[in-house]
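Dear support,

Our group has been running a series of protein-ligand predictions, and this particular one with zinc ion is the one our PI (initials K.S.) wants archived with full inputs and outputs. We had some confusion internally about which version of the output was final, so please treat the block below as the authoritative record. The input we submitted was:
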Amino acid sequence: MIPTLTGGLDPSELGVTLTHEHIFVLNAELMVNFPSRFPADELVDRAVRYLEEVKASGVDTIVDLTVMGTGRNIPLVKRVAERTNVNVIVATGWYTYHEAPAFANLNGPGRLLGGPDPLTEIFVRDIVEGVDDTGVKAGVLKFAADRYGITDGVFYIMQAVADAHLETGAPIFTHSDPNQRNGLDQQDYLEKRGVDLSRVVIGHSGDTADIDYLRRIADRGSFLGMDRFGLEARLPYDQRIETVAKLCELGYASQMVLATDSSAYSMNFPDDARQARLPRWRAPEVMNSVVPDLRKCGVPDDDIDTMMTANPFRILDTTHRSKE
Ligand SMILES: [Zn+2]
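Confirmed final output from the archive:
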């Protein structure tokens, strides 16, 4: 069974799946210090309405890749999931472009205070036992590298994610910056650690139209996260569509997953700015716009089904893998 916010899901019931979305992108410090500015009931109501739209667009499951560092709040998203019929798979990991959290800099093998790696322990526990006392298990692992590349802090997180993956088998989703081509650096490290690269989704690959780079990632076995439709500043929508269509033509449909990386609510993007600048940056747009536009570009239905249903199944289904 695949763990979701509302219990175990048979992999055959995943259906149409968006593999990189967020319910909330929050700042844990602001949430703790100014709770009156962010009333939980309102956030939950808003997210329920959003997920109803996602469901109505034809999506059955989302992977919420919000991890620690971007305000993961399992009790809050659990309340949302209990009121919708979208399956929500949650993630564990730590989001940073720079430093690891201080407790991880000081504790762990080879660091000042020694002992086991605290991040690995947290990640494994989230997957195997569940997140604290929420009764919710994480289904996937996540780490990030952005324009600063593989900093020491990023390396600590990446190392802990690889360890937790090798121990649990949970798939790895990354945040990469294709302009720095650091999806390849992520693959280099994970490969060195003995991670099967077909268990890895190199996220935000869709931020580039560089077909040569994208083929290099895919040819090593990983999935390409074409996962930011509507985030115009990184790459305009039409170019994202053209890039996916081109890769389908080249035979790469079996290695792409589609999503928007947007959210029901984000502290980073005030509503007004978002509506004015990024009107299409919403999860329902994948089925409402992206899929029809890919069809217009000649992408066959088989390829659409592969990207929306079969590939997420292959990535997320850990139950059947041992029988392969
Ligand atoms: Zn994201």
